[in-house]
């Protein structure tokens, strides 16, 4: 964010920020190393504030730091403990905002989540306000945080959230696809066979589907999606959302697969895929033959005929009974 911060950010900082000397005791070690846990007493230096503690899941910008909320600024400046997925990235965000945390900053990532969740909950139970944040978006959504929420709930510690940017909802809104019913499917499996099976299971999913995917696996995932959902299924690839090089491509899956295969895709990627079309009239002979071949290919690997027919028919928008009879008699 530039020096000319908008008034609401400046007001939030001026009203609530308690600046302290930044020294080595404020920050944990590099989050890439599974550091020594400080223990329950070590998370906050000195006594806790009066009143009940709580765990707060705080959303961070998914790209543009100007999307930070006034409440997040307030929490970062006043919380007793700030648990960050990557303390180096948090440093950069704080530097852009011109904010100095008054509490202890600790790392909280996939390598120490199992052990540190208990420490965070213990601190909240003893009266601390503990803020959990990840590199981008809402904690616990394809990011650390779920274990802390479960542990806090089991311990009777209040859990709340400071909502904010979400790659899932941003991509859905920009995709141009149906938003009345949707589901988030996270990252598809990395292994090709497992990924194909997972996508095949979703062929009949009626809701708009949202996936995260690594850029170097996008072409393969789109190719598998063409096989599972059909070449003409509407979809959108949303890349680098809210960043300088934001890109949203809205095309049928086959076109998106060809686009991804022809280049090195970079950046954060969210894939949005429409649900299947409503069943239409009977297909022509060539289309029916292709669908039967797809059914036979899957049943040859041991999948149940009725399940496969239902999924393929739903994905192609053809009557299930018609496809079943064709598959049985060919």
Q: What would CATH call the homologous superfamily of the largest domain?
A: Tetrapyrrole methylase, N-terminal domain
What is the structural class?
A: alpha/beta
Order of helices and strands: HEHEHEHEHEHEHEHEEHEHHH
- Rounded to the nearest angstrom, the radius of gyration is 24 Å
Strand order across the largest sheet: 3-2-4-1-5
Name given to the CATH architecture of the largest domain: 3-Layer(aba) Sandwich
Short description:
With 330 residues, the chain is of the alpha/beta class. The protein has helices at 7-16, 70-78, 87-97, 113-125, 146-155, 167-175, 192-201, 218-229, 253-261, 285-299, 305-316, 320-328, and strands at 54-58, 81-84, 104-107, 129-133, 159-162, 182-184, 208-213, 234-239, 247-252, 269-273.
Structural account:
The protein has 330 residues and is an alpha/beta fold. The protein folds into three domains: 7-165, Tetrapyrrole methylase, N-terminal domain (Cobalt-precorrin-4 Transmethylase, domain 1), CATH 3.40.1010.10; 168-273, Methyltransferase, Cobalt-precorrin-4 Transmethylase, Domain 2 (2-Layer Sandwich); 285-328. The protein is built from twelve helices and ten strands. It has helices at 7-16, 70-78, 87-97, 113-125, 146-155, 167-175, 192-201, 218-229, 253-261, 285-299, 305-316, 320-328, and strands at residues 54-58, 81-84, 104-107, 129-133, 159-162, 182-184, 208-213, 234-239, 247-252, 269-273. The strands form two sheets. The chain has a five-stranded parallel β-sheet with strand order 3-2-4-1-5, with helices on both faces. Strand 2, helix 3 (87-97) and strand 3 (104-107) form a beta-alpha-beta unit. It is elongated and about 70 Å long. The N and C termini lie far apart (64 Å). The model is unreliable at 1-25, 29-42 and 44-48 (pLDDT under 50).
């Amino acid at each position: 964010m530039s020096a000319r911060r908008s008034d609401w950010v400046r007001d939030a900082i001026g009203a609530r920020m308690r600046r302290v000397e930044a020294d080595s005791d404020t920050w944990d070690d590099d989050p890439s190393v599974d550091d020594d846990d400080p223990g329950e007493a070590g998370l906050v230096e000195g006594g806790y504030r009066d009143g009940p503690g709580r765990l707060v899941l705080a959303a961070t910008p998914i790209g543009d730091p100007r999307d930070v909320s006034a409440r997040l600024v307030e929490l970062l400046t006043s919380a007793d403990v700030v648990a960050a997925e990557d303390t180096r990235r948090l440093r950069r965000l704080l530097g852009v905002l011109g904010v100095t945390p008054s509490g202890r900053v600790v790392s909280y990532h996939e390598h120490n989540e199992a052990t540190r969740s208990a420490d965070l909950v213990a601190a909240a139970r003893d009266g601390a306000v503990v803020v959990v944040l990840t590199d981008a978006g809402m904690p616990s959504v394809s990011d650390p945080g779920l274990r802390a929420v479960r542990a806090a709930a089991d311990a009777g510690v209040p859990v709340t959230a400071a909502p904010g940017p979400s790659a899932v909802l941003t991509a859905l809104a920009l995709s141009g696809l149906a938003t009345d019913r949707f589901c988030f499917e996270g990252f598809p499996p990395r292994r090709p066979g497992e990924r194909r099976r997972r996508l095949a299971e979703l062929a009949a999913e009626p809701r708009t589907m949202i996936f995260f995917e690594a850029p170097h696996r996008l072409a393969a995932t789109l190719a598998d999606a063409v096989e599972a959902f059909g070449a003409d299924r509407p979809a959108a690839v949303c890349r680098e959302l809210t960043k300088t090089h934001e890109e949203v491509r809205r095309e049928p899956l086959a076109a998106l697969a060809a686009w991804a295969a022809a280049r090195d895709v970079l950046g954060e990627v969210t894939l949005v895929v429409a649900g299947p079309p409503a069943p239409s009239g009977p297909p022509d002979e060539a289309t029916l033959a292709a669908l039967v071949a797809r059914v036979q290919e899957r049943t040859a690997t041991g999948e149940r005929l009725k399940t496969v027919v239902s999924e393929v028919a739903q994905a192609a928008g053809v009557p299930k009974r018609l496809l079943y009879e064709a598959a049985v008699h060919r």
